[in-house]
């Protein structure tokens, strides 16, 4: 996420290293590089210029605190301004009506249909809502099929009407049905086009007028940069939408949309998409995103995700096993499956301060754990529960059964033993202090 922008900003701050005081000369040199980094990230020129001017005003003459170097002080000023640029604080979704109605808008290919499913899944599981999805794209049959598949996948009803060709009537009938079935949330997926046109704008405007949604959300493909911001302005002028959703932040995102859109339309980014899975949705926190752009990670979000998947009863059982040196491959597998539920692996690593930089351009496959699961699956129940009995002949049999090399089996056993030792150490005083510190971040 924003790897290129992060590395360019880091290079810009190197100018200040070694200086005892921030001066107009070294600030100007640094901000020239910052502005260039923002423009390369496809941030609007006017916004980039105003941003660097504001940072310059705050930085000139600022006294460096005794515990900080000039570069660190500049980073703090830039972080505060990035946070302000993206909206300062997270914004809630308004769902006061019953049923509440969310109208999804945006161009074709922005991820609108997929994110409709993600929102339904989020509100169902996290907010205990009873949603219904509405298929109002009457032009693209695949959109209706896609929504039905997503609805089945997450256990949410989908309303569609193949006989009706008027999306306004489909939306109105869906809301009536939602009331009859005691649904408390209606999410309307609308048609998109490859570009803004009069037919699209009139249609979405007519649906908006007919259903009076509690929230109208504009879905933006974050990889399209400044073009997405321009499109958002056209939609906003017509719909006066309530918020923005940034999708595909797990891809090659330059950052222009995230950094520019709030200034252009003066509406908050409310959610972001960070992967293909239905759970790959996050509330947008401007300060946390500023941290990530500046390479500081996002430990708070990482801890929150871990706590969502954390099974306390299971943890207590494993803790007792570790204390008795009974930690098994079944327990190891259970831990891996909990980590997998937390989301995209590269995104998770990006939340660890400094880890994203260390990984560089290395691509981390979401199936990175698959071979481990296959090898463990090739073990007998006795071997999984008693790792100490794994001799050479057993390892050979496991490797053949898993279709993997013997070296991979040996490597897995080595990793397992290291993890067992580390978890044993974590049960000591230092480990408990560390866990308390992380829990206090939430």
Describe the protein's architecture and organization.
The chain has 442 residues and is of the alpha/beta class. It folds into 3 domains: 3-85, SRP54, nucleotide-binding domain (Four Helix Bundle (Hemerythrin (Met), subunit A), Up-down Bundle), CATH 1.20.120.140; 100-294, 3-Layer(aba) Sandwich (Rossmann fold), CATH 3.40.50.300; 301-439, Signal recognition particle, SRP54 subunit, M-domain (434 Repressor (Amino-terminal Domain)). 57% of the residues lie in helices and 9% in strands. It is built from 21 helices and 8 strands. The protein has helices at residues 3-13, 24-40, 45-59, 70-85, 112-126, 141-154, 167-180, 198-211, 226-239, 256-265, 286-293, 299-309, 312-323, 329-341, 345-350, 355-359, 370-377, 381-385, 392-402, 406-426, 429-439; strands at residues 100-105, 131-136, 157-159, 185-190, 215-221, 243-247, 269-273, 281-283. An 8-stranded mixed β-sheet has the order 3-2-4-1-5-6-7-8, sandwiched between helices. Strand 2 (131-136), helix 6 and strand 3 (157-159) form a beta-alpha-beta unit.
Architecture blueprint of SSEs:
Blueprint: H1 3-13, H2 24-40, H3 45-59, H4 70-85, E1 100-105, H5 112-126, E2 131-136, H6 141-154, E3 157-159, H7 167-180, E4 185-190, H8 198-211, E5 215-221, H9 226-239, E6 243-247, H10 256-265, E7 269-273, E8 281-283, H11 286-293, H12 299-309, H13 312-323, H14 329-341, H15 345-350, H16 355-359, H17 370-377, H18 381-385, H19 392-402, H20 406-426, H21 429-439
Parallel strand pairs: 1-4, 1-5, 2-3, 2-4, 5-6, 6-7
Antiparallel strand pairs: 7-8
């Amino acid at each position: 996420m924003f790897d290129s922008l992060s590395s360019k900003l880091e290079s810009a701050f190197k100018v200040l290293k070694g200086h005892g005081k921030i001066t107009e000369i070294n600030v100007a040199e640094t901000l020239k590089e910052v502005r260039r980094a923002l423009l390369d990230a496809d941030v609007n020129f006017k916004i980039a210029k105003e941003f660097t001017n504001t940072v310059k005003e705050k930085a000139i003459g600022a006294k460096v605190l005794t515990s900080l170097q000039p570069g660190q002080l500049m980073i703090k000023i830039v972080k505060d301004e990035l946070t302000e640029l993206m909206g300062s604080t997270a914004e809630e979704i308004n769902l006061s009506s019953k049923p509440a109605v969310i109208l999804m808008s945006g161009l074709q290919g922005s991820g609108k249909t997929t994110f409709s499913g993600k929102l339904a899944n989020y509100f169902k599981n996290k907010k205990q809502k009873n949603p219904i999805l509405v298929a109002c794209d009457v032009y693209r049959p695949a959109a209706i099929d896609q929504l039905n598949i997503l609805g089945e996948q997450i256990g949410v009803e989908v309303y569609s009407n193949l006989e009706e060709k008027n999306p306004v009537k489909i939306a109105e009938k869906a809301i009536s049905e939602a009331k009859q079935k005691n649904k408390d949330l209606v999410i309307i997926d609308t048609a998109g086009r490859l570009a803004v046109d009069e037919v699209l704008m009139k249609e979405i405007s007519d649906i908006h007028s007919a259903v009076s949604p509690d929230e109208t959300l504009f879905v933006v493909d974050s990889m399209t940069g400044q073009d997405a911001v321009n499109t958002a302005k056209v939609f906003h002028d017509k719909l006066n939408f309530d918020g923005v959703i940034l999708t595909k932040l797990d891809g090659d995102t330059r950052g222009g949309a995230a950094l520019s859109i709030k200034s252009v339309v003066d509406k908050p980014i409310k959610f972001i998409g960070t992967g293909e899975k239905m759970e790959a949705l996050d509330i947008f926190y401007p300060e946390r995103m500023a941290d990530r752009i500046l390479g500081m990670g996002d430990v708070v979000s990482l801890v929150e995700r871990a706590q969502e998947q954390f099974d306390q009863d299971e943890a207590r059982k494993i803790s007792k096993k570790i204390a008795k040196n009974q930690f098994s491959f079944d327990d190891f597998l259970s831990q891996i499956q909990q980590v997998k539920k937390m989301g995209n692996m590269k995104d998770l690593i990006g939340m660890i301060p400094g880890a994203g930089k260390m990984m560089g351009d290395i691509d981390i496959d979401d199936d990175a754990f698959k071979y481990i699961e296959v090898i463990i699956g090739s073990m007998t129940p006795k071997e999984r529960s008693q790792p100490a009995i794994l001799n050479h002949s057993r390892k050979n049999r496991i490797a053949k059964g898993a279709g993997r090399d013997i070296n991979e089996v040996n490597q897995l056993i080595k990793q397992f033993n290291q993890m067992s030792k580390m978890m044993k150490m974590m049960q000591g005083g230092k480990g408990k202090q560390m866990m308390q510190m992380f829990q206090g971040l939430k």
